[in-house]
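Quick one, probably user error.
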C-alpha cells in the first residue's frame, strides 16, 4: 500500500513536493525497525515517536530508550542515506525544571537527529483534566532550562534557516 501510494502521487500525479517519512513504533532492534520498511525508493526520512510518561523519575528510562532508538535509527539512516528524525516527542506539562538539558539533551547527544518535533501546546483539556503542552511558555518551570537548551546544543530553529536559503 505504501509503495502504491508513493508511486501514484509521485509518478501518476507528478507531485514532487512531498516528503515520505517512515515512522515505526515500538522497536528495539534494527530488524524490528525495518520489519515493514517499504524500500529506499519510497522513503525520504526515518523517524519514530517517543514521549516521557509518568513522573520526573522516569527521565532516566526516557533518556536511555531515546538514545538506544536513535542509535538504531541512525545506523540505518547512514546505510540508506536517509535523514534521521524524532517526529514526535515531549513530556506533558514538563514538570522537571531541568528536563531540557538534563534529560532530553542527554538523550540525543550521541545520535543527534536532523529534525525534532515537540508535540503541540493545546491548552487545558476538560476530558483529560490536564494542561496539554509540550514546550514551555514564559514563566513555566522549565522555561529557563529550555532557553539554555536552545542556546547550548547547536539547535537550529525555523527562523534560523533563513540564513541558509533552503526554501529557495
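Nope, works fine. Designed sequence:
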Amino acid at each position: 500500500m505504501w509503495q502504491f501510494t508513493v508511486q501514484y502521487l509521485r509518478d501518476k500525479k507528478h507531485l514532487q513536493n512531498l516528503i515520505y517519512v517512515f515512522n515505526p513504533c515500538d522497536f528495539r532492534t534494527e530488524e524490528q525497525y525495518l520489519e515493514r520498511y517499504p524500500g529506499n525508493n519510497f522513503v525520504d526520512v526515518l523517524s519514530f515517536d517517543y514521549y516521557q510518561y509518568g513522573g520526573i523519575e522516569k527521565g532516566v528510562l526516557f533518556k536511555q530508550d531515546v538514545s538506544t532508538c536513535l542509535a538504531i535509527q541512525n545506523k540505518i539512516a547512514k546505510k540508506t542515506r536517509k535523514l534521521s528524525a524524532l517526529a514526535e516527542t515531549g513530556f506533558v506539562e514538563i514538570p522537571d525544571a531541568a528536563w531540557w538539558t538534563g534529560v532530553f539533551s542527554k538523550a540525543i547527544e550521541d545520535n543527534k537527529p536532523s529534525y525534532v518535533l515537540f508535540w503541540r501546546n493545546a491548552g487545558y483539556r476538560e476530558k483529560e483534566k490536564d494542561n496539554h503542552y509540550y514546550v514551555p511558555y514564559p514563566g513555566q518551570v522549565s522555561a529557563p532550562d529550555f532557553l539554555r537548551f536552545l542556546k547550548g546544543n547547536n539547535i537550529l530553529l525555523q527562523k534560523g534557516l533563513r540564513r541558509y536559503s533552503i526554501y529557495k
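DSSP finds five helices and six strands in the chain.
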